Amino acid sequence: MTDHETTSKVSTKYRTFALLLLTLVYGFNFIDRQIVGILAPWIQADLGLTNTQLGLLVGLAFAAFYTIMGIPLAFLADRMNRVTLLSLALAVWSGFTALTGFAQNFVHIALARVGVGIGEAGGSPPSHSMISDFYAKEERAGALGIYSLGIPLGIMSAYFLTAALLGADAETVNWRRIFITLGVFGIALAIIVKVTIREPVRGAMETGVKAPSGYIPLGQSFAEANLLPRFALFGGLMAILIASWATGAMSVVFFIPFAIFIVTMFLLSLQPGVMTILSIKSWWWMALGIAFASFASYAISGFQTKFLRLLDPEFSPRTFIIWIGIINGTFYVAGTYFGAKLVDWKAKTDIRAYGTIPAIAVFLALPLAIAAFWAPTIALHLAIGAALQLCLGVYLGPSFAIAQTLAPIKLRAMSTALFFFVLNMIALGGGPTFAGAMIDVFLGQGKVELEATRWAMYVTFGAYILAFIFYMFVRISLPKDWAAAEARNESS
Prior knowledge:
With about 500 residues, the protein is mostly helical. It has helices at about 10-40, 40-45, 50-60, 60-75, 80-100, 105-120, 125-135, 135-150, 150-165, 175-195, 220-225, 225-245, 250-270, 270-280, 280-310, 315-345, 355-375, 380-390, 395-405, 410-425, 430-445, 450-460, 465-490. It has 23 helices and no strands.
């Protein structure tokens, strides 16, 4: 145990405090992530952005760096003080959030979003890893469900902050001041995290287990691995990437992170522990389930404000923004909290509940999402949206718990980073980007913008069907994978 680590036993009060503070940090993560979508109509008008550019800002420009940089940062989280890494990451993404308020064009705001993405990449991997060292696996879904409350509470806070700082009329929105204010508060929170949270012992909650080293030395990994297929695969990917950059098909802004990703994944492929994670079927099904469920959900977050402005231009933006915040702070919170608790309770007698309950939730979400964007009035949209948010919170805690419980103890931060890579490249990178592009497609077919937005969202909601299928696969494969994870950790 290092000087920075606590003993394995921590008081219930302290671990509750640490969990709530980590949840607050995650809330800031989502405030900074979602605020662009909330302020989309005003940012788009001020900077003259297309729908596709707006989708890129909310989606791929952020997600590419967020997901790719999460992997090397998770490697650090598995090897260094996680509290230090988390506090530095929070300070970085808050700083770039503040800089967003100074953007004058698409390039400026895109670069600021890239910085936010890189910073936020260092948030969840160390947080998930620490929570797993505060709570035993029987309590882990509930604890990570509470941590996941940072999502709805962060989104709620973002809407409330926007409503509070709106100008006297719908056209007067000082969106720059909102970004700067968020950045300053985030930097202050980073200092609080560093001062108050103590680094827990890795594997402290795995009774009788002495966690082995998660990674083997680089020289040993080269000596033991079958290098030829790895050089062929990753060398081929790098050649394609270089060709794309050389021919102008890809800008250097995206070339750099993807090159880092290819090199990092080549090195990680030499690590037996990482390959163990990637060989677990239930891990993949859970990652793909939450990814496609969130694909549609991120698209809603990215374009909901814009849709409501088109639906009823005379309706007060302040009013519907406050109501969206209330819905996220009540129905989404309830779905997240009680969904995790329900899975914790049901899984005591049937471990397949980790797949069954999220599958039911996304099955119900599909007709609700379609109905919400079919609604002819804002009031009806919000009423249906409340029921939708209740369903969308259910799958968060169980999904994150599986990413931790099935992973080798010393690789939990890496498991979260890889899980988030799958989740966010598909969901955050794809959802808003796809929806924005589809809006422009339907506009090109002659539809008015309101109808174009409706039809784009209907197409996007097909992702809920894929999510349902993947969660049902979890139900099939999880009993075997859960038992294998228990045996692997007990024999370590």
